[in-house]
Write a structure and sequence with these properties.
With 187 residues, the chain is an all-alpha fold. It has seven helices and no strands. The longest helix is centred in the N-terminal third of the chain and has 34 residues, at 8-41. 41% of the residues are buried.
Length: 187
């Protein structure tokens, strides 16, 4: 059962911000791991760029469709669907046995991000109003932007300490916890 609306705003904003942080982080976290990925999976010349491009292409190319789907099918439903697709594709990326599998999984991550991001933004604008909405949007945007900067640092640390697969697998527990919390927090 969801908490009363007066208890939701900060909990809801934290949840939506964590999801957005993870989505933006994944745009940059892989950059540092690319040499390790190339060695491990045997990427051919020119193929490695698709590990980054597939994610950005899917997330940017499908975001309008994700926003429309949130309008038609419901914000909460699309947020959860996007989070589920993103998390499952993160697992598939971390377990990818071959270059084509990794590229396909990265496209799946981008598709999940394209569903999750507009739904989260819509949830914020529907939940908050006035100055509180402006503050919530500012916080959400700042935390998302921090994900881009943190991605490079996290990518280096994870790749060095745990291997390149960790840059994708780290999303799985975060995504599972966020999805479970969403069932109780997202209106």
């Amino acid at each position: 059962m969801a908490a009363p609306r007066h208890q939701l705003p900060w909990t809801l904003l934290v949840l939506l911000s964590v999801a957005q942080f993870m989505v933006i982080l994944d745009a940059t976290v892989v950059n540092v791991a690319l040499p390790s990925i190339a060695r491990s999976l045997g990427f051919g010349s020119g193929g490695l760029q698709w590990v980054v491009t597939a994610y950005v292409l899917a997330s940017g190319g499908l975001v309008l469709l994700g926003g429309r789907a949130a309008d038609v099918l419901g914000r909460r439903r699309m947020f959860l669907a996007g989070l589920t697709v993103f998390t499952a594709a993160s697992l598939a990326s971390g377990l990818a046995p071959a270059p084509g599998a990794l590229i396909a999984a990265r496209f799946g991550q981008g598709a999940g991000a394209a569903m999750l991001t507009p739904a989260a933004l819509s949830i914020i604008t529907a939940t908050y109003s006035g100055p509180q909405r402006a503050r919530a949007l500012g916080i959400w945007g700042a935390i998302g932007g921090a994900g881009a900067a943190a991605g490079v640092l996290a990518g280096g640390m994870l790749t060095t300490w745990l291997g390149w697969r960790a840059v994708f697998l780290v999303n799985v527990p975060v995504g599972v916890v966020a999805a479970a919390a969403s069932l109780h927090v997202v209106p």
